From TrEMBL:
Signal peptide: none annotated. It comes from Neorhizobium lilium. Residues 8-295 form the Carbohydrate kinase PfkB domain. ATP binds at residues 185, 221-226, 253-254. Keywords: ATP-binding, Carbohydrate metabolism, Cytoplasm, Kinase, Magnesium, Metal-binding, Nucleotide-binding, Potassium, Transferase. This is Ribokinase.
Amino acid sequence: MTSGVSILGIFVADTAYLAPRMPALGETITGSGFSVGPGGKGSNQTIAAARAGAEVSFISKIGRDTFGDLALKTYEQAGVNAKLTIMDDQPTGAAFIYVNDSTGENAIIVYAGAAGTIDISDVEAARDTIGQSAVFVTQLEQPAEAARHALEIARNARVTTIFNPAPAESFPADIYGLCDFIIPNETEAATLVGFAIDTLDDAERAGDVLLSRGVGVAIITLGGRGVLFHAPGQSVHVPAVSCGPVIDTTGAGDAFVGGFAAALSRGAGPLQAVRFGCATAGIAVTRRGTTPAMPMLVEIEAVMAR
């Protein structure tokens, strides 16, 4: 019996700094806020999917340290099945996040720490977890070879595969053919296809390029302009869902991916799952932080019912 979502990715402790601007090199400026909380794309997507009602297993590596303790507590509270290797010789990952205190825009530096050592043997150890899920999700914060191997396991087990090519690092070209869904944002899509995504027509053109490389469906997230769902013979622009003032876009993409995966795992059709993902992200951007911003299923359903 296949059910739920399995996610391969990294956990990092997000250290977020609110300020009016980024300091120049050699300059110190005064910030207006600070927080430490759980983060990392895979981890954020895990919490988003779990809060959106899915059964979720998260596959990763952490260090035996304070940030690692934060990870364990986060998954316990969210009811996530954490498949974590704990390392003694590597720290848990961490991220520096600058958030502009008036626009909510962000800039991020990520150090994967222990999760940066995820390799094919770690993925093999999680083969059963991946193969028994309905939907598998991964990204590029851990090494691309590990992501590719996990996608291959999922594909061979007839598990629906979602690949979020973020950050926009290079990866083996044969990954495309292992993706039922590829979900880049407009910046990542531009990097993959080699031209800017300024208009919906550009996004459709990028979708065509991704399909030509072997992807099943390309879903390009366009920030406040919503999402382009691009499948063979079908291209649909799904508008963003507004749930109030946007104050922090840091976890928006992860909220979308987690919500989308959760909806698919419960049997929603792909377009319905995109709308569910848009509602999930629409709520998340009205709150500060990444993991703490992820909405509960009841909140998403209320937005979907409007």
